[in-house]
Amino acid sequence: MSREERLGKDETPMLDQNVAREVLQEAVRTGGDFAEIFMEDRIDHAMGMRSHKLESATTSRTHGAGVRVFSGTNAIYAYTNDTSREGLMNCARQAAAAVRGGKGCVISDHSLTPSSRRETASAAMLIRHPGAARSISPEIVQVMANYGDHVQDVCICNTEGVFVTDRRVQTRLRVSAIASNGTENQSGSDAPGASMGFELFDTRVNAEESGKIAAQQAVTMLHAPVCPAGVMPVAIDNGFGGVIFHEACGHSLEATSVGIGVSEFCGKLGQQIASPIVTAIDDGTLVNNWGQIHVDDEGTPSQRTVLIENGILKSYMVDRLGSRHPITGSSRRESYAYAPTSRMRSTFIAPGNDSNEEIIASMGDGLYARKMGGGSVNPATGEFNFSVAEAYLVRDGKIAHPVRGASLIGRGSEILMKIDRVGKELELSQGMCGSKSGSVPTDVGQPMIRVSSITVGGR
Q1: 454 pLDDT tier (thresholds 50, 70, 90)
Q2: 68 alpha carbon, distance to own chain's centre
Q3: Spatial separation of the C-alpha atoms in residues 312 and 274, rounded to whole Å
Q4: Who's near 356: CB < 8 A, 6+ residues apart?
Q5: Which of 10, 108, 222, 237 has the fewest CB atoms within 10 Å, i.e. the most exposed one?
Q6: Mind listing the pLDDT tens digit for each residue in 50-101?
């Protein structure tokens, strides 16, 4: 959307267009063929509580701007929190001088950002009831809750005539619980969020229910035996189960990896890379979702990008620097202190035709991964290793009992081809994704899927 569309008559713009024009001209003065300014002003509120006690309440402000210059495929990024005309001109001069060196870099002219502390009374209402989690079992010995929200105003302009502003509002609650039998502990968590304000808790999130979910997971895993190891079919539940696709395949479809030839999916557009029942999408337009963006951090309007359709690779996620392929509105960054790169937004496997009951009943013996944990992946090879936060053994098509200590080990391209069932019930879950341009909010998701065989780590 245009600056005129975003600004009201009495609203002062973050960046004067005449100043922006001067700064951009200075940035390309030494021969750069493209320049861009990204300016932000962001207010964060956060609260933390542990076992009935409020431990922290903070408000912080992030304010600054960055100037990026291209010369061919060489990119220079300089940033500062002095957003006066002279501060921005100096930033542009540094980028312009460095671009002649022929090697990309990031230049910082950065001092401490002012911050302050305060209590947020409305948020305190959320986290004063840990009893919801403790009501699950007397084995719950500790409950922790963290609340956070931010309002980020950005302005993005470049030498191709882009001048846009955007306001981004996000709110999230994270609840974790610890269960103990006196000799060992197990934990559980729930962390819902959305691109909206405190009304999140009127429409999407029940704080007490999140506490119960975290507590039930902790208690269940406390009483679970260790998972047996082996190669077996695995049903991965919806919601955060989508982290498997996000990590093992999604990062390998970003231009950040594809553009420099370090992705297992390089050069495979139009080829079959997944089972024919798999369609995967990265969508930044889902209203109020955690991964929603109106425009990306290069000022490109957000869009819905079909990555894989019926098993065929259709698109990568592409930013301006990786634009040998069509730009997809996927350029993102944590703050002005980072140059942007291609990143995921809301990335998920689309619904299929199978019921969850059929998926489990037809798998024989295997593992049901109800909730995924953390993991690691090598985008160049697609090799991954993920822990399963909550898992159950399946015997003769029936869920038998919970197990703990399970992990899933494999390679993204192989797993995609082995998906033999896709459920009907799509669900998205929220997370923070770290990469070259810092940590950004992303949704992961899928219906329940089944992988015909995968290595399960255990004992």
Answers
A1: very high
A2: 24
A3: 7
A4: 423, 425, 448
A5: 10
A6: 877 888 999 999 999 999 999 988 899 999 999 999 999 999 999 999 987 6
pTM attached to this predicted model: 0.91
Judged by DSSP in three states, 88 sits in helix
Contact 396, 212 (CB under 8 A): no
pLDDT score recorded for residue 11: 56
Q: How far apart are alpha carbons 216 and 220 in whole angstroms?
A: 6
Task: Report CA torsion sign: 337, 287, 12, 152.
Answer: negative
**Residue 44: CB partners within 8 Å, gap ≥ 6?**
58, 59, 60, 61, 62, 148, 149, 150
Q: Kindly give, in sequence order, each residue whose CB lies less than 8 Å from that of residue 345, ignoring residues fewer than 6 positions away.
A: 282, 283, 284, 291, 292, 293, 302, 330, 332, 442, 443
pLDDT tens by residue, 1-39: 444 444 444 456 789 999 999 999 999 999 999 999 999
Tokens of residue 422, six digits: 């896709």
| 184-to-74, 139, 191, 205, 306 alpha-carbon distances in Å | 53, 11, 24, 31, 45
Measured distance CA(306)–CA(199) in Å, rounded: 31
Q: What is the DSSP letter of 314?
A: -
Q: Please count the residues of the chain.
A: 459
Give the integer Cα–Cα distance in Å for 307 and 346. Answer: 12
Pull the structure tokens for residue 86. Answer: 């002279």
| Side-chain-side CA neighbours of residue 408 (13 Å) | 36
What pLDDT is stored for residue 72 in this prediction?
A: 86
CA–CA separation, 102 and 366 (whole Å):
54
DSSP labels for 214-276? HHHHHHHHHTPPBPPPEEEEEEE-SGGGGHHHIIIIIGGGBHHHHTTT-STTTT-TTSB-S-T
